[in-house]
Fold these 3 entries.
Entry 1:
Amino acid sequence: MNYKDYSDWFGMQGFHAFMTQRQEIFSKADNRKAIVESFPFDADKLAYPKQVHSNRVRLVEKPGIIEETDGVISNNKEFILSIQVADCIPLFLADKQSGNFGLVHSGWRGTANDISKRAIDRMEDVGSNVNSTRAIIGPAIHQCCFEVGPEVSSQFDDTFSITGKDDRQMLDLKSALWHQLIASGIKSENIMIDDDCTNCREDLYYSYRRDGKKSGRMIAIAGWR
């Protein structure tokens, strides 16, 4: 299986963070347990959200589907977290001090509504320290390919857009999220941005913008073992 391994960057022995790349057999969410087992994690401990492009973040208290949410965090090392993406940003979070961790599906709606701040606040509620929290902004659509209308661009500061065709704007979602993480108190040296554009790199990633409804999904996974 093709995947990216971000585990070493977090520098937490026993903590692992992965994101699958383009792979047909694992493109559907209902195959997620097979992905988890291949790393290997205990699939019976898997928790994942039923994503709805919201800014809701929930603390995982038991394995299984977490209804209508787009961010999951855990202060229990037994649980394995995952989300699915295909252009939206997979945001990995982990605190070196407490061991708490999270995964956030941050599309333009979630980013516009500060889902990252909600995740960081929830992690702090259960004992995390923002000064020791690290974040990875994973592969997602870049400004070069993310053309949006005024109904979307108007929800972001003008500094995150450049002019496109007619009334369209090219939105830099990763930069918007980076600034939100900084505003939430995460140190700049504790944020890593993966520069891959999912729309450009057809060889590596699925892209809803490029492929439409037929697009597969990448799966982000985080947990302890």
Entry 2:
Amino acid sequence: MGAPEKIIRMDSLLAELFKKRQWDKRLALHAVFRNWLQVVGPEIAERTEPQVIRGTVLWIAVSDSVWMQQLHLQKQALLEHINANVHGLEKISDIRFQIDATLGEGKMVAILPKQDAAPQPIDPEEQRGFERLIGAIGDAELRTRLLALWRKSHGGKPR
């Protein structure tokens, strides 16, 4: 029988592996994912999400083109702020943006007015006023569709 092999602690084995593969440097960069809300603040965090770091370039998903344009104009300040929150020697060198329309949907749903369960009756006098307004339109089908659209926009059914 040979001599028993030396037992190596798992934490020292992982530390050596991280150092050998230089993952410790990369790990510091990826802290931005965990701390995104604190790094950019609630307003930007609600409309953005860090996606991936390729090399030292951070790709950020943005809810729409308006936010993308705004963040692009603030890119240098945002980059400096992100790097101030990265603890390590390696820093983010650039930011790229891409649109992801699913971001920020929670906020959009919250600001939409709630629809009543039962349609509200339409004031007959208001309806007659609208019918007089569209009466000059020669196309009967167009008048019918406009009236249906008006009813829908005013809550539903006639009294």
Entry 3:
Amino acid sequence: MHTQRLLTAAVLGPLVFAVLWWGGVSGFALLLSAGVALCLYEYYSMIFPGIFWVRLFGVVAGLIPVFLSLFYPGPRMLVPGIFSGLFSSALLFIVTHERWKEPHTLWVFFFVGIGYIGFCASHLGLIRFLPLGRQWILFLLIVVFSGDAGAYYVGRALGKRKLCPGVSKGKTVAGAVGGLLANVVAAFLAWFLLLRSMEPWSLLFLAVVLGAVGQVGDLTESILKRGFGVKDSGSLLPGHGGVFDRVDAVLMAAPVLYWALELGLVKSFGKLP
């Protein structure tokens, strides 16, 4: 497991960086769309195993907010994007309600996938079009993934008291603290390499917030997996599980980063590096 995690990270890390840094907007759009489509497919596979057409419908509906963020940059399309998911999912279960034992419950789960994955991921598209958009996305990935690694290894080494055993048996208080410390260290490194025009203390504070929100995202997916009786959302990434397993924290943290930047909560020195 440990070796597989490292090998997967060693392969995917440079690939994602290359697309983000040199792939331009089109490369980023392709990467984001493919990643979100895989997450959506894994999510709906947990809810509707063996029913391909519903999973396909969920992928299409969940991608609408993402496409809107890419083709119409700016927050004005967030409301139409999430409403499109609400309307399409409601229409699906109105038309097919006789097929399901509890259509109202399944409708809620269906819409949660659009909101959690599609809507949250659309903020990555919005971040890309901000000044220093590439750097901010890399900052988010570095901070959140470093926090995941810190929580995993500190939890294994020192974790005794469970963080939330009713949701996830493996997560510990020590791991959560270790993850936040790793968030701070990673944020300082990202500041030094990518964002020297930003005031470092505001980035360190932002990293703690992103890390805490990311841990909530991780636990949120754990609730879903436990509810549907699966260990991982998929098996595409050896040592990690599915794509959704790998980016659940990033999805939850992306809106926080976007709005922190949009509202000017991150201080700048007023000049580029």
